Description:
The chain has helices spanning 2-21, 28-46, 58-85, 87-96, 99-107, 117-133, 147-175, 178-203, 210-214, 216-236, 241-263, 270-286. By secondary structure, it is mainly alpha-helical. The model has no long low-confidence stretch (mean pLDDT 83).
Amino acid sequence: MLYLLLSVVFSVLLLVNFRAHARFQVDTRIAILLNYPVCFLTAYLHQPSAIPFHWPSASDTGLLMAMGIGFVITFLLSGFSTQRNGMAPTSLANNISLVIPVLINLFILKTGGDISMSILVGLIFSFAAIYFCSPQVSSTDGVKPVVSLLLAVFLAYGLTNTLFSYLNSTLTALVGGTLPFIMMLLIGSMASSAIVLIWKSVNGTLNWNTNSVLAAIPLGLPNFFSFYFLLKALDAYQNNVAVVLTTYNLSVILLSALAAYAFFKEKLSGRQWLGLGLGCVGIALLNGL
């Protein structure tokens, strides 16, 4: 439970970072794309012996690279969708995508042991909480939604999380542990990020400045630790994705909403308070409390 709690805390710190970007004129795209080398360096400093890597088979290596690239693709899709559809529909598509890894792991991969009534009821409460906590989609915004983009965000996040949990359960021990596993994923992320940075720089669509570059450091550190502790939590729960990812996702939503209310004076609507209450019940049921 400690690993899961630490992962949630560092994930909320990520959101706090994003909240501060506008104040310091940070181009969030640059900070995100440059945070992957920071994550890699942090992992290396924790375990220099991870290099040279013990690479798995060619097909598994390809999946690791695809996973790393998937992190960047989901970010880009989320950005495009936010521009075209707005923040609320994109956030909802992102949050509800949790249903994909949960259902795949419960009914296809069958990881995490038997499905108890407590877990089933907890999942129902949790998904209801995620819906109510997500920003409300308004039909008065005057923006015609691009459904294909929302579907792409939903599938990208869902499939990326599914592959993430699957590779963790099958390859982490094979490649030498959690840190080498993370570093291998990050190679794909760094390569694809470099391509995107060059492409957008040539097109002149990035706002390069010192703050945007330096922002990658306070972004990369909590990003690394959130991944690291989430993987450790999956290991501790025998890769029970239904419990771990649902509790993680919901806890991040709940804690970030409370942090925004407490520190940034962001008001919560009645439906969001309802979501917070349902979320607490869902987390308790999922963890047998």
